Amino acid sequence: MGASHAQPVLRRGAPDDDIRACHRLLWESATDLGRRRGSPLEGSEEDWWAGGEPLNRFLAEHAAEWWVAESPDVKGDGLIGYARSIERGGLFELTELFVKPGVQSRGIGRQLIERAFPLGRGEVRSIIATTDVRATARYYAADTVARFPYFTLAGRPRPDGDGGDLSAEPIAGDDPSRLTAVTDIERAVLEFPRGTDELRWLAANRPGQLFLRAGAPVGFAFQSKRAAGPIAALDPADLPLILAHVEARAAELGAENLDLEVPGINVVAIRHLLGRGFHIDPWINLLMSNRPFGQFDRFIGYSPPIFL
Hints:
Mean pLDDT: 91
Helix content: 25-40%
Number of domains: 2
CATH topology of the largest domain: Aminopeptidase
Number of strands: 14
Structural class: alpha+beta
CATH superfamily of the largest domain: Gcn5-related N-acetyltransferase (GNAT)
Number of helices: 8
Order of helices and strands: EHHEEEHEHEEHHEEEHEHEEE
């Protein structure tokens, strides 16, 4: 007979107690999946924490639901899984679902997703999902359907792009007029804009630019030295001009590599970036939702692809 396993204890996550343990489990699970796929991910858990601490703290403080699973069978902190979601108006996103390698396929993921992403909640239910088939099956059961691939395009940013007739103004968290402009663009593009708190967090941790033509806002981009997003344009034809500004800014910051999370139906951005020497990373995700929404042919998501 096989060894018995104590039933896990599921409880709500606590920012003061669980934030680092959940990050450690994310790193362990993601790097394990990368190795099994033949696409190993770089960096230690400490490296990932150093780059991702602001995001982890934001998710811990603003989660709609956050559940962890613990087991006495596991040495150390006992954490064997967690799931977390965020909510923006009617948009309900599952941001994370991770189960510790070695205890997967025991129903822990199902129990976590039932609590963190309950059926019936959200006008639109959305997940940026890995292509791990076990997780994909769970997400179909959670009332979502794969809509299109979500590519990471990576490359060395160059400052020689043509920004055309667009002017750029910084987005400050204390400037309500520019935050309103970003909200209006995002409502037109995604249907569900981020709240003011999230936009202020973005502006503080990933400075943004509002792009204008003849004084009228036409798009925006948030970016750090190595990663960018979210980025949106009212007209997809403006994406090459916006991306020229993004590349130039990244080059100015001294970035040797820039990652962009591009929906597979964003033909303009993908063809433009490939023409600029970017490549499609082997790690591909899926955008899953309960119904079609948004205009993803003019949107580039947050990097890393935790949420839109």
